[in-house]
Structures are given as C-alpha cells and as structure tokens.
Amino acid sequence: MMSRSPLVRSRSAAVLSLVGNTPLVPLHFEAEQLTIYAKCEIFNPSGSIKDRFAKCVLVDAEQRGLLQPDSVIVECSSGNTGIAMSMIGATLGYQVRILMSASASEERRKIIRQLGAELVLFDSGGQYQTGIEMSRKMAAGDARVFMPRQFENPINAEDHDHCTGQEILKQMPGPIDAFVTGFGTGGTLAGCGKAIKRRWPKARIVAMEPADQALLAGECPCCHFIEGVADGFIPQLLRDAPLDGNIKVKSAEAMAMTRRLHREFGLLVGTSSGANVIAALQLAQELGPRSTVVTLLCDRAERYFSTPLFETAKN
Ligand SMILES: Cc1ncc(COP(=O)(O)O)c(C=O)c1O
After folding, report:
1. Which of 31, 147, 227, 292 is buried deepest, with most CB atoms within 10 A?
2. Would you say residue 126 has pLDDT above 60?
3. Which of 22, 46, 48, 49 to mutate to test the pocket of ligand 1 (most atoms within 8 A of CB)?
4. How would residue 315 be classed by pLDDT, with cut points 50, 70 and 90?
5. Which ranges in the chain are annotated with CATH 3.40.50.1100?
6. What is the mean pLDDT of residues 262-277?
C-alpha cells in the first residue's frame, strides 16, 4: 500500500467525507397528481453522481498499491467523471489528465482546468471510442499512467450496489415498485438495480434512453441533447444489469421538464435529471398514484449555462 503523508491524508479526508450519503426527497407533481422519489446526487461535492466512482476507484487503487507519487490518472469523460476525477485526484495529490469530447460544454472544461488537471480535447462527433483509444495509447507508452476505466471497471457498478443502492434502500420506507435512470457507463443502473432487485424482487428496473438514440430499443445512434447519458454504444457494465425495460425520452421534453424542476421545485439540475423525472412520472402513471418510483438527479445546472438548456431562459 502506498503511504501518503499525514498532510495529504487529512486534506483529502475532507472532500472524501462529502461524497455519497445524498438526500432522497419526494417530488409532488400537482398537475399530474403523482409523487416520485428523487435521490439528489447534486449534493456530491463536485455536483454529480460521478464523485462516487472517482472516490472509490482512486481509494481502491491507493489501497492496492497501484498509485505512486508520480502517477498520472488518465480518464476519458463527457465531463462529470472528468470533473470528479480532477477533484479527487487534486485532493489526493496526483496529476490528472482528462480526455474529453470537444462537444462537451465550456463550463466543464473550465472546472477541470480550475482543479489543476490537464485537458485533452478530441473531435469525434460526440462518440466516445476515439477518446478511449487515445487513453489506451497513452497508457501503453507511459508506465506512470493509471486508468480508472469507468466504462469497463467492475468497481463502478459494485460501488453503486454497495453504496448508492444501499442508501436508497435505507431511505425508502417500504417496497420500491420501480427504479429508473439513464446510463453512460451503465454502472449506476447495474449497481443500484442489483441492490434494489435483491431486496425487492418485484421492483421494475428501467433504463431511460434519449428517444433520438434508443440503442436498447434497437435503434441507431444519432445526436441528442441529454448530456451525460447514451454515448453511442451499449456499455459492458449494463450487460448484466437486471433490466425490465426502457423508456424513451425526447430531448425537447427533457429540457422542458428540467426547466420545470428549476422553476417549480427550485432544483437546479442538468438535462438528464429532467429526462429521468419524465421516465419516473411515466412509470408512476402506469403503476398507480400510490406507487414508489425512484430516480436520480444526476448533476447540477451550472455546467449547462452555455448549452440549449439555458437558451430560452427569460430573466
Ligand atoms: C449526467 C449523468 N451522469 C451520470 C449518469 C450515470 O452514468 P453511469 O451510467 O455512467 O453510471 C447519468 C445517468 O443518468 C447522468 O445523467
């Protein structure tokens, strides 16, 4: 095990202790006469669910002696993982290099650089494989490189099973009828899905997919505006998720619901949260007004200022 100095340990303890144990709140939709339950991952210190993976993968790597003082953490990310990895890497004292699609919002780039990480942008029409290939080549040519590999690393889904999923089970007073969320790596859906299904076998575990890119529905990849989800392929981690179905959400409807969450609920969340809420409401409608449908608010709104989400906002 790599021994860190007491100074680094005590400074990293502060941010590490803020990751996870996020609140879960009921959201009452008066017009629809429905209530859904939202786990507020926006309360994580960098503002997204991805803080969980960054924390667990880097702490695990330290414990297994895989990180040295000169290690370079290299990860391909659409933004949230990049921000989370930069934050946790900074507090643990490691150099971080993030490979990000040039289509990701300007705010994400600024936050990553502000946290002291190096940013490498690649142009690939929003598809991920280019960045993943680039990161593999970097690792092959440099022994200092450590790759968290969020898309393949089983720790990703395991942590959601052992932490996020268990938190949900503790926070919900009784049986859970359905759990729905989008997927990027599939770690959240697979991990939380397994935890919930184990405790409540009748619970429906459902994937939210952008309607413009419904891969699970057998449709072709295309462009969509729900950042953070659906990167153009079905991820490996999703293959053993206990999925019962999928719900397609249109980008425009996701944005409208996200603005509703801002203005009616005061919840400043990103577009995928709006999409998740639409899917959760659809399930609650199907399962009845007393049903318990859980979803996630994955990230905060401030990383979307330059995106279409804020274009029609009237001040
Ligand atoms: C913005 C955002 N980040 C992350 C996730 C979860 O991603 P993953 O499948 O990689 O766990 C979601 C899922 O809805 C999301 O909307």
Report:
1. 227
2. no
3. 49
4. very low
5. 6-43+153-310, 50-146
6. 96
298 Cα–ligand 1 center, Å: 6
The reply to whether 124 belongs to the active site is no
Q: How far is the CA of 229 from the centre of ligand 1 (A)?
A: 6
Pocket of ligand 1 (CB under 6 A): 48-50, 80, 181-189, 228-229, 270, 272, 276, 298-299
Q: For position 134, what pLDDT does the model report?
A: 86
Per residue in 199-240, pLDDT (tens digit) is 999 999 999 998 876 566 655 555 556 666 666 678 899 998
Structure tokens at 184: 């990027």
**50-146: CATH number:** 3.40.50.1100
pTM for the structure as a whole: 0.91
Contact 157, 191 (CB under 8 A): yes
CATH of 6-43+153-310, one of 3.40.50.150, 3.40.50.300, 3.40.50.1100, 2.40.50.320: 3.40.50.1100
Give pairs for 303-306: CB < 8 Å, separation 24+: 303/47, 303/79, 303/80, 303/83, 303/105, 303/107, 303/108, 303/111, 303/270, 304/105, 304/107, 304/227, 304/270, 304/271, 305/105, 305/107, 306/105, 306/106, 306/107
Ligand 1: residue of 44, 105, 183 to mutate (most ligand atoms within 8 A of CB) is 183
Place of tokens 């150099």: 95
Choosing from 12, 39, 48, 50, the catalytic residue is 50
pLDDT for 291 = 96
Tokens linked to 78:
């659409």
